[in-house]
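Data availability (excerpt). The following record was deposited with the supplementary files.
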Amino acid sequence: MIFATVGTQLPFDRLLGALDSWAGCQQRASVFAQTGRSGVDFHNLECTPFMAPSMFRDAVERARVIVGHAGMGTILTAAELGKPVIIMPRRAAFGEHRNDHQLATASEMRKLPNVLVAEDETQLSEALGLAMSETSGHGGCISPYASPDLLSAVSDFIRGGRAE
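Predicted structure:
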């Protein structure tokens, strides 16, 4: 299963629509999505607008791949549970956020081994194909546990280089 999450503040229909289209072309992929405040009816996604934290964690644990906005909660949870994550940053120009801070987050996170960044719908489809092939048991190298280096890099990024 692919688990997609877009947070709860603003709709992110560009990501969800691209994922819905991709899922419609796949015979084998089931996608469960936390859609937030979206008003769109998706045809190829099993959807819920909001989730309790325990349900969110359970969905991440069950997923082969996580797809989401460039929100740190999603990235940290995926890293903690050793899950590959595809992030697509929200863009202020499209009304998806108030500013473009997620572009900076994505730029830093793309350096990590279990993170793929998709700048647009085409790259999202490509990243999904790559991530699904890597997690199929045919040469995938995703560890079931996040490495200390990964967790340290994310922690340093969040703190902005400041020591605790």
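Summary of structural features: The chain has six helices and six strands.
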